[in-house]
Design a protein that fits this description.
It contains 16 helices and 15 strands. Helix 2 packs antiparallel against helix 15, helix 4 crosses helix 5 and helix 15 runs antiparallel to helix 16. The protein binds N~2~-(3-carboxypropanoyl)-L-arginine.
Length: 446
């Protein structure tokens, strides 16, 4: 008989791109975000691209769910800073105070669910429950708005709180800056067996940064704290420092320079302060079984090209047909990145296939395929308790497509951020999406 408790899958939970997706250049250290500042965005195309990616993943036989966007512009957040009775008045006051403050309230950044939480599956935790620690996203002002709604949406996705613990974010302090699963890799011989977690940090003290150009977002104390809250035993945790060179080249999260799945680690040779070989040896020792490690060297793929193409921000997925790399379209068009992929495919590891996806609107804000999803390894029993209304089916995809085409704007420019009728339209669209997904709608701020 099948052992249901141990038969595990990995659920992919994507954030649906919100109707306010725009290019305000808010993320210092994220090169694509800065380069796109002031350009006209297309929220409709962005959401449809994201939905197509989800459908591609589901079509590979992988469990796929989604979370709706958070209400944006975040009027309640702005009111606490600048007051204002109506939406129009609040937007105007925010703009007068600071156009950056106004832009922060409009960001669609919750779509990058790799930053929603750090995930510790029940196979790896002391109490055999699934733990999620919601990220505080303390480093980027516009992302500090996210955690309350993220926690709420995760409880909607995983309503059975007897088997799941969703922890609130760490206190908002630089010493505890936490960016969630974008800085976490889990290795195991299969999703169902106990794993070892690599928790990647950028700085080991709130006041000392080894980078010279861009901020190191994740602190070691935060990584240690989320592992402790998640009841991860010390033998299952490796705390590894991201190399300052990678951060200064624009790798603001580990998932821009490394990705892992089951017993396969793909990494750039400049990703960490230790070499890939040392990391792979440490992982094999901790796991008690060998892992495969494929690298891209600086000579074949300079950090700048790795970051431009987002090769390591591919989704590395276990499918019934073998392991598949779902890579950004930008990799196919890069001779250097595609040569690395060809070499990896021929290396005789579990990696069998590459598929390309176009998520150009998200990429223009520094969010590739892997940024758009949170991975949650689940037993079959836990999977059966996931909110079925949030899992992607062909019918749900069609209804979302229709909704997006009807309700999402096709352009947003920086000057539109003062437009109260556009704000109202976007808030109503978000409310409509919650209704469509049959989860309680957020309060519309009048
Ligand atoms: O935090 N971009 C996000 C991209 C997050 C990508 N996530 C992972 N690597 N997992 C960020 O920098 C841009 C918003 C703007 O510029 O308007 C932004 O927030």
């Amino acid at each position: 008989m099948m052992d249901l408790q141990n038969t595990a899958i990995e659920l992919q939970v994507d954030g649906l791109v919100g109707p306010t997706h725009n290019f305000s250049g808010l993320s210092f250290g994220n090169i694509a975000s800065s380069a796109s500042a002031g350009k006209t965005s297309n929220p409709r195309a962005a959401a449809l691209e994201g939905l197509e990616k989800m459908a591609l993943v589901a079509g590979l036989g992988v469990a796929q769910a989604l979370l709706p966007p958070h209400p944006r512009p975040a009027i309640g957040f702005l009111r606490k800073i600048c007051g204002g009775k109506t939406i129009a008045e609040t937007l105007e006051r925010a703009h007068t105070l600071s156009p950056t403050l106004l832009a922060a309230a409009w960001s669609s950044s919750p779509m990058w669910t790799a930053n929603a939480a750090t995930v510790f599956p029940s196979s790896d935790t002391a109490d055999h429950r699934l733990h999620l620690v919601v990220a505080n996203l303390h480093t980027q002002f516009h992302r500090t708005i996210e955690s309350t709604d993220t926690a709420w949406l995760l409880t909607q996705l995983l309503p059975d709180q007897t088997q799941v613990q969703i922890h609130p974010p760490l206190s908002a302090h630089a010493a505890l800056s936490d960016e969630g699963a974008a800085n976490q890799m889990r290795l195991s011989s299969s999703h169902g067996t106990a794993g070892v977690h690599v928790l990647v940090y950028g700085r080991d003290d709130a006041h000392v940064s080894t980078t010279t150009k861009y901020p190191a977002r994740q602190s070691l104390l935060a990584s240690r704290s989320v592992a402790a809250l998640g009841q991860l035993s010390t033998q299952r945790a490796l705390f590894v420092q991201q190399s300052p060179a990678a951060i200064d080249a624009g790798a603001f999260h580990n998932d821009v320079v490394a990705v892992a799945n089951e017993n396969l680690l793909l990494t750039h040779d400049q990703a960490f302060t230790i070499s890939p070989k040392i990391l792979a040896d440490q992982l094999s020792n901790a796991l008690g079984s060998p892992i495969h490690c494929l690298t891209a060297t600086t000579a074949e793929l300079p950090l700048a090209e790795a970051i431009r193409t987002y090769l390591f921000n591919s989704q590395l997925l276990t499918t019934p047909g073998g392991m598949v790399l779902v890579a950004p379209e930008e990799c196919r068009n890069s001779p250097q990145a595609s040569a690395v992929i060809d070499r990896w495919l021929a290396a005789g590891t579990p990696l069998k296939e590459v598929r390309y996806v176009a998520v150009r609107q998200s990429m223009s804000n520094g969010g590739g395929p892997a940024c758009l999803r949170l991975r949650i390894p689940l037993t079959t029993v836990e999977l059966a308790r996931v909110n079925a209304g949030l899992t992607l089916t062909p019918d749900l995809k069609a209804r979302l497509q229709f909704f997006i085409n009807q309700n999402y704007p096709e352009t947003i420019t920086t000057t539109d951020l003062r437009d109260s009728s556009l704000a109202r339209r976007c808030l109503e669209a978000t409310e409509g999406l919650h209704r469509l997904l049959q989860i309680p709608a957020p309060q519309l701020e009048a």
